[in-house]
Amino acid sequence: MNILVTGGAGYIGSHMLKVLSQLGHAVVCLDNLSTGHKELAIYGEFINCDLANKSLLKDVFDKFSFDAVVHFAAYSQVAESMENPGKYYRNNVTNTQNLLDVMVEFNVTNIVFSSTAAIFGNPEYSPIDESHIKSPINPYGRTKLAIEYMLNDYEIAHGIKSVSLRYFNASGADPDSEIGERHVPETHLIPLVLQVASGEREKISIFGSDYSTKDGTCVRDYIHVLDLCEAHVLAINWLKNNDNSRQYNLGNGSGFSVKQVIDASVKVTGKLIPTTIANRRLGDPDELIADSSLIMKELGWTPKYNSLETIISHAWKWEIKENRRKY
Question: In whole angstroms, what is the distance from residue 75 CA to residue 207 CA?
């Protein structure tokens, strides 16, 4: 198939390009490089384009005959969304509407959407299934939920089918270390911990040690980026062969605490990782774990890299490569 990947120069998008290309699909990467990195968009054809530029977007759709769109392009920093909600509504919601309008014009009716567990807000129970109340507590989560509603409306009005994948904590890297995670600034726990191991940072802060968990630190669901990509491949195949849309929660199904991540990182790297206890961050729930049984049942998805040490070892190989690149 011919597949457009928006935000393909980003962390998950660049891995998606590689996976789709290795499966024999023709891929086009569309990214404005505001947070992405062109050198990570190794596979397929790269086009520098902002979704706000509807004219250029039409030119792209006119040049290529797309069978499906995989939509990653979005801003995703929770704290920034609180400080500058307009930036998030313009880029995430308005620009997604531009994309959908162009899809309608060119009769492209299949889209896989990168949603988020942030649409659920503070969990009422865990693991979180698809029927959990949607009550996002920040503009980032609200923009993603707004897009899910928009997709539903565009399906009713225009026949666009979608699969929305609600990620928990994407992590790990390409096992070949060809591509990996590169955020500026970095906010994800595993790469931050590994930056301490590599000597780039002095210590890692643990935000709160008195949560109602086994060791007092927050528990999160870490899913390998390649397992995420596999779910996208299955979602594309679903859209090709079915006439209805789906929404799925996507995680490892196992929770790991901050201390467990640090301890596993020490084991994988063989390095000392100094820590310090800091105050809790506002809005951090004790535990966030996905119930991914629905996508397992309906699409046959099963995470292949569900070991925390495997996730960290792949991320560590990438961190070593990144450390050499920077220094």
Answer: 24
pLDDT per residue as tens digits for the range 199-243: 999 999 999 999 999 999 999 999 999 999 999 999 999 999 998
Q: How far apart are alpha carbons 87 and 193 in whole angstroms?
A: 29
Contacts of 182 (CB under 8 A, 6+ apart): 11, 37, 40, 322
Tokens of 297: 């049942």
Instruction: Please pick, among 11, 75, 140, 305, the residue that the annotation labels catalytic.
Output: 140
140 a catalytic residue:
yes
Question: Phi, psi (5° rounding) for residue 121?
Answer: 70, -150
Where are the strands (E) in 130-286, listed by range?
Answer: 161-167, 169-171, 204-207, 219-224, 246-250, 255-257, 275-278
pLDDT digits (tens, 9 = 90+) for 69-123: 999 999 998 889 999 999 999 999 999 999 999 999 999 999 999 999 999 998 9
DSSP letter (8 states) at residue 92: I
Report all structural domains of the chain as residue ranges with CATH numbers, in order of start. Answer: 2-170+223-250 (3.40.50.720), 172-221+253-326 (3.90.25.10)
CA-CA distances (angstroms) from residue 133 to 93, 117, 230, 252? 21, 11, 27, 21
